[in-house]
Amino acid sequence: MDALLHVLVIGVLLGGIYGLVALGLNLIFGVIRIVNFAHGELVMLGMYGAYLAYSLLGLDAYVSILVVVPALFVVGLVVYRLVLQPLHGESSMQIFATFALVIIFQNVVLAVTRGEGYSVPSRIAGHTLELGDVRVTVSRLAILAAVTLAAVGLHLFLQRTMVGKSIRAVTQDRQAARLMGINVERTFMITFGVGSALAGLAGVLLAPIYTLSPGIGGNFILAAFAVVVLGGLGSVAGAYAGGMIVGIVEAFAGYYIDPELKQAIWFLIFLAVLIVRPSGLFGQPGAEEIGFREQE
Amino acid sequence: MDATSAAYVETRAARAGGIPRVQRAAALYLGGLVLAFVPLAVLSNDAFWLTVLTYTYLFAGLAVAWNILAGFGGQFSLGHGVFFAIGAYVTATLFVDHGLSPWVSLVPSALASAIVGALIFLPTFRLKGSFFAIATLAFNEVALVLANYAESLTGGPRGIQVPFRAGFANMIFADSRGYAILMLGFMALAVGVSVVLMRTRLGYYLLAVRENEDAARAAGISVVQVKLRATALSAALTAVGGALFAMYVRTIDPPTLFSLPDVGVKFALLALIGGMGTIVGPVLGAFLIVPLESYLRALLGGSLPGLHLIILGVVMLLAALFMRRGITGVIDAALVRWRHRRRHV
What we know:
The complex is a heterodimer. Chain A is an all-alpha fold. Chain A has helices spanning 2-32, 39-57, 65-84, 91-113, 138-160, 162-172, 174-179, 184-206, 218-231, 236-257, 262-276, and strands at residues 128-131, 134-137. In chain A, strands 1-2 form a two-stranded antiparallel sheet. In chain A, β1 (128-131) and β2 (134-137) form a beta hairpin. Chain A is globular. By secondary structure, chain B is mainly α. Chain B has a single domain (4-344), classed as ABC transporter involved in vitamin B12 uptake, BtuC (Orthogonal Bundle). Chain B is 77% helix and 1% strand. Chain B is built from 16 helices and 2 strands. Chain B has a two-stranded antiparallel sheet with strand order 1-2. In chain B, α3 (47-72) runs parallel beside α8 (177-197), α3 (47-72) crosses α13 and α4 packs across α13. At the A-B interface, α4, α9 and α11 of A face α6, α13 and α15 of B.
């Protein structure tokens, strides 16, 4: 019973990480339908942003959120405006372009840091809490809290604000949204910015846990795609639940089956869901129907 | 690139469906091969450029193989690393454990890959666009985990080492020019298959499926069957490339075979930059990117870490932004302009 609880806690904490990274990707993939390979690199930039804020301004990792998240929002706007918007309607070229961005971001950071691994200290991240028999570090609890808050916040943003409503409108039908007077291009740009900002948030919160390296984004990107498809495109609750499912499956598979196979197992579940119910567990049926061609 | 004029006619023909007559197609094909051989003849004494050319021919062939399913059929696969790895593992294992000549092993490699490809892609064919891309990407990742895990089959993370036993029957050459010719032969095979394919019923069906699946179905084409056959063909050719790669580098391990930037996604990048859905496009993409990558690495690799990849990334980004239809698209547009001007002078 102890082991079960322990594995469950590990799974939920891991799920928090996946959910947080997937939240931003869910917006970008779910709304704009861009397979953004560079999302992991946006997370990586967020991590290095936290380091920069620490080394230049002496900010604690959790305080640097105030600087890094807006900065990543701007990065997202710029990337979308300069690279992805000109390629609108050319889905395969957009994949190609985001892959080029992966190479550029990774290697610019590599060139600047000369491959040195950094870590970001935080005064509170290292503490542990005891929940019964299970010890949990504050840094991982912070992620769980953040993903919950971010999910609720994003949900409210999408439901209550005009910008959020326009994002939902272009997700459902971009032609109709345009006819209703919504500026589709601007909405996409903001969506990409918000998605990048969420990636930056994930990066900052992950910075105290991992040693920073330019290629670290690759650790999250495939899991994040799996979460997005599992949970359902454009569904905030789906990203949250999907993250938990992937995290818990990974923890249980790692403990009860074989640690080496844990990734294969959730990938297989992901494939099964994709094939049986392509709209995801929480997505609107039919959301996946839009192929490359129909977008134009 | 020097193969441009031949390239132009072939791609135009393939795209428009107005295929040139058999003799003309054969002449263009042979002419293109001779052109592709020229750099080898010129550079065969330079060890660096010989290696670069060997990889260029190999990846040109692989991009052409990928293009059969993705370019002609519109199924944007990011899982071709699986087929590449199957070819490499089958051939290396049969050679190391059973002493079977790699030339013979090409057949079981291609067959195994075609069967696996058909089986794993079958359930994903109802997915469209980026969903198909992500599902096939997941295949690549599952296969990576399994290859690391199944140590008895693949040697696990340590991989498989192929002993150096030079000899034509072993596909191991003491003179590295042998490998360059081998890869040129592979490229010729892949392009030849594409040329023939585009003159067959299956080729036309593929284009029909790519352009409009529902219309193709309404016209009586069995869409799933067409996709399956294209997958099998594409996977088989990719496996042959993987087998040759294994015999060339003689050390294979999961991180190399399932690498996204160097294998699985690279096929797509080369074909996209050259011109997807054309016969010569993927070849041109490989002839641009592979030498550029190697040259930049040799030139800048020692200075600032990552600098050569930054430049490569920027080149790719600019290519994506300013050559939407790839190199062949630029050539097409230029030729159309030129003809137009000549007609109106």
